[in-house]
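debug: dumping io for the single-chain case to check the tokenizer round-trip. Nothing else runs in this session.
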Amino acid sequence: MTGHVGWTEYRLPPIDVRRWVNSAPLTPQELRGRVVLVDVWEYTCVNWIRTAPYVRAWHRDYHDLGLTVIGAHAPEFGFGRRPENIDRAIRDHGITYPVAIDDDYTFWRALRNDAWPARYLFDADGRLADRWVGEGGYDRTETLIRRLVEAATPATALPPVTPEVTAFVTGPQPTYAGITPETYLGADRGVPGTYALTGDWRVEGEYVEAGVSGAELVLPFTAGEVNLVADPGPEGPAAVRVLLDGRPAGDARGADVGPDDRAVVDRAAMIRLVDGAPPGEHRLTLRAERPGLRAYVFTFGP
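debug: decoded output
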């Protein structure tokens, strides 16, 4: 375990949240006797999106053997408090385990959490067994899940390790060395010089908003993958033209960019702009097709 003093005697705290999805409210007392995995998430966080398949797999394979997975959603941006956004994300990501909507960060603080995503694994007596922050460590998490489930019910016949974790262990491990770090765009966390705006843009605390059609955002980066957390704004769906090094991205188009080199933002979400850019430095240009588009943060991958 890492990060805080006094973890060894730490227990599952009260789950005091705004509302629940997929479950009636759960309490530490009701969960006694079950192994509990708390997954702290935020639906536009690329690091959580990459971990989600493993969390779903653990729920799928170990729930009937004594594991309860709880997804604790804490919003990073204002739109993350809108129930319709969270409920759609739960459906889109195929989440069927209980979700605690922690809009006020009450459970986040009780966990002493400080990042997205984070996993907290508690034994059947409610004691914290370990915690992990960020991506990776899936094999270690599953090994401990299996050990705790078996300790709680010694006669349990465990299934094979999940195919998802087996593929993670046997496949190539991604490296993020040399990749551009998260690039926030709003006044609160934006760093001057990391991107450029041309045309009319309004700079707010969390985001920048296109003021006119044709306004451009230019981002220098070094990465194979580029994603953007964006919101169409109150006027409905907004499209952006996506250019890589001044040209159509071609085979390096992200999954949310069409053959016409446009990405349509129809809800507050993470959109995939570039995937498979060749090694080296690049320039991404986004050209708003109408006013109102809001851009929050760029994230990157190898």
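debug: round-trip ok. Helices lie at 28-31, 46-62, 83-92, 106-110, 138-152, 163-170.
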